């Protein structure tokens, strides 16, 4: 009888562990918030997160911050994004803010620690019609 009780408790523990609530899938909001956006070639997605009206994706590239930032500086205007801010920090990080209509985009690039390459984050927002959003220049 004791063995049956232990097995029953073990089975209940497994069922309870498998019934954990999952956080919502961020992919639909990432697709919506990043519509019309692009990432540096040969980048690898590391992480993504999303809220109700914004999404963030973190990526990695084997190339230097300088190369990746230069690519964004050229590619954004060519694809209809207007540069609002472009700041390079003392730690060689780069923060770029761009707008396409009323849609904001933030790109933050940092050199990898202990290895070559760049880790960068792209944040996009979904702005409802009639909403106003003014992106402040982070350099001021």
Q: Under the CATH scheme, which class?
A: Alpha Beta
* Arrangement of strands in the largest sheet: 1-2-6-5-4-3
The tally of helices reads: 3
Number of strands: 6
Mean of pLDDT = 78
Estimate what percentage of residues fall within beta strands.
Answer: 25-35%
Tell me the series of helices and strands, N- to C-terminal.
HHEEHEEEE
Residue share in helix: 25-40%
Radius of gyration using CA atoms only: 21 Å
Counted up, domains total 1
Q: What does the largest sheet look like? A: 6 strands, antiparallel
Poorly predicted parts: 4-12, 131-140
Which key features would you list for this structure?
alpha+beta; single chain; 140 residues; Double Stranded RNA Binding Domain; 3 helices; 6-stranded antiparallel sheet; 33% strand; globular
List the helices and strands and how they pair.
Elements: H1 2-18, H2 27-33, E1 44-50, E2 54-61, H3 65-78, E3 82-88, E4 94-100, E5 103-111, E6 118-125
Antiparallel strand pairs: 1-2, 2-6, 3-4, 4-5, 5-6
């Amino acid at each position: 009888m004791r063995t049956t009780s232990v097995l029953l408790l073990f089975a209940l523990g497994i069922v309870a562990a498998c019934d954990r609530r999952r956080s919502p899938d961020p992919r639909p909001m990432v697709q919506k918030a990043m519509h019309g956006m692009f990432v540096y070639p040969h980048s690898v997605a590391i992480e993504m997160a999303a809220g109700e009206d914004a999404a963030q994706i973190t990526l990695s590239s084997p190339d230097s911050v300088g190369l990746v930032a230069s690519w964004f500086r050229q590619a954004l205007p060519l694809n209809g994004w207007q540069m609002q801010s472009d700041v390079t920090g003392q730690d060689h990080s780069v923060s770029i803010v761009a707008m396409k209509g009323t849609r904001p985009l933030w790109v933050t690039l940092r050199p990898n620690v202990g290895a070559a390459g760049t880790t960068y984050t792209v944040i996009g927002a979904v702005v409802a019609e009639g909403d106003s959003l003014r992106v402040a220049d982070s350099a001021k």
